[in-house]
Design brief:
Shape: globular
CATH class of the largest domain: Alpha Beta
Structural class: alpha/beta
Number of helices: 14
Distance between the termini: 26 Å
Keywords: Oxidoreductase
Bound molecules: flavin-adenine dinucleotide
Helix content: 25-40%
Radius of gyration: 23 Å
Pfam families: Fer2_BFD, Pyr_redox_2
CATH architecture of the largest domain: 3-Layer(bba) Sandwich
Protein name: NAD(P)/FAD-dependent oxidoreductase
């Protein structure tokens, strides 16, 4: 939907060239993702003189960090606000003031295509969940991907019981739905998100019997200069730490939830101490009563739209893949930029910084003007400093190879297709599978609705049997599930599935207006994926 101008607190949608169907316009810039990165990029680009379409699948801009209660709940603000809301208030004010930004919410982008004239088309389905809406096209001279990240899940016995929720999901339930996942909630997994989630749940009235962190915090001490250069990050951690102390929440580092107990739903969890490779230490298991478990093992950049058009990726410090980006946030594909967690997980401030950098580079290119050198230099220093911290954080919380020791043979690894760890192991040891793709063909792991987003990491780790796990294949034809009717509806104008195939297989198209100022070389790219996408079975 296009957000109505009269929506209280929300952005105002004003088309730069009023027309009944926004998809017919060619904007200067199409931004996909309205989290801190995309929102910052959109308002900056508009203030620099570009027409912008800001596209997001959610009902309101804000992304992961700035979630709001659903309008039907009549709540003014989230119950447990983050400490850093001022920048978001500023972004919302600038968005509302913009006369050249069109905000297209509830648009689920399933593919982006570079046209033969060098412009970009984003194909989306509309509606709250994207399955009942109409298809929509949005065209732009440049495209910025700010699609954020999704949570990484490592399975363990009992993880499919009702009452086990994702850590970010628990926060979203609270912020957007004003509900708690339970009354006694254990928060577990790895990464700084756990502290934020536990603090929010405790502030909203939940009892938190334990926060269980698989990594050890001492690993941060290996990068003292990076820590010293980022005092705000330490302050953030202290704020959450103080909140946990106030609510008497015990923190268990180097430990993991290795089993969930219960028949109908969660009744308790077993927390086990880990060695430095995340192997469970025998005899250290302790049962903790609870009625919910919020669990997450870090975040994985959401890069499907980019890799589908051949963007190069790089392996991040925690073994996940992010986009390989140049000095001005450009991807390896001309005319396509990225900002925020798509290039590596690093927090809201880094996302905003990269969003502004990308917008300035795009405006310079499209308008044929030189970007403000002082502002660019300042942003670049800030980005590099925050990226260094993000890398240290990713290294500190990278899953150790021993985590697969938590799995029993009957633990579901792929919950969509109900494939157990035993079946994956059998495919590797008994049938000779050497890579996750072969395991998938032999077992159906990763062929369900989520298309491997949930089980991809686990299958890769089980396949590699303790060796560093190769990241799962990250090239897919459709970034989100799309009804066939939406594909068929695009057919007459040359969109739809055949055009998707065309877009993937056609040789590189020319760029729109040339940039007088060379943008820096792409940073440390790995070989781009093969031009032909991995064939994936549809759900
Ligand atoms: C519970 C929680 C607590 C956090 N606490 C902190 C904190 O204390 N400090 C901190 O610095 N950071 C924190 N973070 C991290 C912070 O939220 C992220 O770093 C930040 O939101 C990243 O911004 P982004 O713009 O890159 O991505 P996001 O905010 O994730 O935004 C991405 C947007 O893209 C949209 N999108 C994705 N794919 C598509 C598609 N195909 N079609 C259409 N739209 C799409 C999504 O709907 C989303 O709105 C927290 C995150 C969570 C979940």
């Amino acid at each position: 939907m296009t957000v109505p101008a009269a929506e209280p607190e929300g952005p105002q949608a004003r088309s730069p060239h009023p027309a009944p169907d926004a998809s017919e316009e060619t904007y200067d810039l199409v931004v996909i993702g309205a989290g801190p990165a995309g929102l910052t990029a959109a308002v900056t680009a508009a203030e620099l003189g570009l027409t912008v379409a800001l596209v997001d699948s959610a009902a309101r801009p804000g992304g992961q960090y700035d979630r709001h209660p659903a309008p039907t709940l009549s709540a003014g603000r989230p119950p447990a606000p983050h400490h850093d809301r001022a920048p978001f208030a500023d972004l919302r004010r600038r968005l509302a003031a913009s006369r050249t930004t069109t905000c297209l919410t509830e648009h689920h982008v399933w593919s982006v295509i570079r046209e033969s004239d060098g412009t970009w088309t984003a194909h989306a389905v509309t509606g709250a969940d994207g399955t009942d809406g109409r298809p929509a096209r949005t065209r732009g001279r440049a495209l910025l991907l700010a699609t954020g990240a999704h949570e990484r899940h490592l399975p363990f016995p009992g993880w499919t019981l009702p009452g086990v929720v994702a850590a970010g999901g628990a926060q979203a339930m609270l912020s957007a739905g004003l509900v708690l996942p339970g009354r006694r909630v254990v928060v577990a997994g790895s990464g700084p998100l756990l502290l934020a989630v536990a603090a929010s749940l405790a502030a909203a009235g939940a009892r938190i019997p334990a926060v269980v962190e698989a990594a050890g915090y001492l690993r941060y001490a290996r990068t003292p200069r990076t820590l010293a250069a980022n005092p705000r990050k330490a302050a953030e951690a202290l704020t959450y730490g103080a909140a946990l102390l106030r609510h008497r929440v015990p923190l268990h580092p180097r430990s993991a939830v290795t089993r969930v107990h219960g028949t109908e739903r969660v009744e308790a969890v077993t927390v086990t101490r880990l060695d430095r490779d995340w192997r469970p230490l025998p005899g250290t298991g302790r049962r903790i009563a609870c009625d919910a478990l919020a669990v997450g093992h870090g975040l994985v950049p959401q890069i499907e739209l980019a890799t589908a058009v051949g963007c190069a990726t790089r392996t991040l410090a925690d073994g996940t893949r992010g986009l390989a980006l140049g000095a001005h946030q450009e991807t390896s594909v001309p005319g396509l930029w990225a900002a925020g967690e798509a290039g590596g997980v690093g927090g809201a401030e880094l996302a905003r910084t990269e969003g502004e950098m990308a917008a300035r580079a795009i405006a310079a290119r499209l308008l044929g003007r030189r970007a403000d050198p002082e502002r660019t230099a300042l942003l670049r220093r800030r980005r590099d400093r925050l990226r260094a911290f993000a890398d240290a954080m990713a290294a500190a919380h990278a899953p150790g190879p021993g985590w697969t020791g938590w799995l029993t043979d009957d633990t579901d690894v792929c919950r969509c297709e109900e494939v157990t760890a035993g079946r994956v192991r059998e495919a590797v040891t008994g049938l000779g599978a050497r890579d996750p793709r072969t395991v998938k063909l032999l077992t159906r792991a990763g062929m369900g609705w989520c298309q491997g987003r949930m089980c991809g990491t686990a299958v890769a780790c089980l396949t590699s049997r303790g060796a560093p796990a190769p990241p799962p294949p990250d090239r897919r034809l459709l970034a989100v599930p799309v009804p066939l009717s939406a594909l068929a509806a695009g057919e007459p104008r040359g969109t739809g599935l055949p055009a998707v195939r065309e877009g993937l297989e056609s040789p590189a198209a020319p760029l729109p207006p040339a940039d007088p100022r060379p943008a820096g070389p792409p940073g440390r790219p790995e070989a781009p994926p093969a031009r032909h996408p991995h064939r994936r079975s549809t759900p």
